[in-house]
Design goal:
406 residues; 14 strands; Rossmann fold; 39% helix; alpha/beta; 6-stranded parallel sheet; 2 domains
Length: 406
Amino acid sequence: MNTHIEPTATRRKLRVAVVTETYPPEINGVARTVGLMVDALLARGHDVQLIRPRQGSEPDSPANPVLRQRLVAGVPIPVYRDLRMGFVSRRSLQREWGQWRPDLVHVVTEGPLGWVAVATAKRLGIPVSSDFHTNFHSYSRHYGFGVFTRVVARYLRTLHNRADCTLVPTAETKADLETLSFERVLVVGRGVDTRLFNPGHRSEALRAAWGCTDDDTVALHVGRIAPEKNIGLFVEAAQGMRAIDPRVRVVLVGDGPRGASLRARHPEFVFAGMRTGEDLAAHYASADVFLFPSTTETFGNVTLEAMASGLAIVAYDYAAARQHLRHWVSGVLAPLGDTSEFIRMAALFALGRKLRTRLGLEARRAAEAITWDRVFDDLERVLRRTAETARGEVGGATRASIHVET
């Protein structure tokens, strides 16, 4: 990745309004990513306004006094009851941005809040960048709304094409969106905190609590226990491992709409619930095999976290796994959608301790090169050029000419 960042002393501070419907302490990949992004922009001296739905009865004042925060009303999303759609009037945003005018509005999520933010920014002539984090059009079929797939895709395309650019984490997602007629799509990758997610967090006490000795194999799932995560295939692959070695322990971190039914059907599994920080890192590092059967990811942050934790990984050959894993070198990759091959590859790790160790070491080595600093260098450059180009400050440039070199 080739980036050029001007020396800090010569760079003009940006005013960035970040609009998102999920944010820490909510637990999901989008919230973690946008939280890190806001922290990075603040650390680099930029002036950031965060606009998001209020979580519970939290106060208006942010934990970080440097951060400008605007909390708005919200309602739970029907199939994601732990997340909220935000609502704000265009008039109030227009008044606020008339008094504190951002150089750029960065829209993270595509709900009503994001829609109003894009419309208001365009009315005021403020440049807009957007993130594409979630394949909501693909999710529809997992919840019995497959008939609405095209409608959802059209809504997403309309919103993102009003932005000056849309940021995605992989070239694969960029190609997929361009096939759907999304415009001005740019790739800015993701990173991983290798100090937090580290094999050194392995805990024999935690493994003992799971009923495991050091010689036993732990198969891990981290994420939402939901249809779109292909949780049924995870169970089938884990059961295949247990058929080979009954001592294999199956651990799930996270929860979701399938959690209750899965706990009832599989009392032999360990359901660890939601985990964060060093506790989450210990759960990763204390496992042996990471099974990630999802086929709906734009990226899959958990793949990088498992890599950094030194786990042997079984995943489909796409998204983060395709970008960062080498088949039979740092992980094993099944052809996308080939369930029998995914199950077969998982079974190889039921007794293959040496293979697990070798792949886990290589996965960790690969993760050490995937730093957030490089990602945020790219992000900062794209945000700056989007703001300057849309205002006509970059001589001879057009909106489509902004790019990240890879």
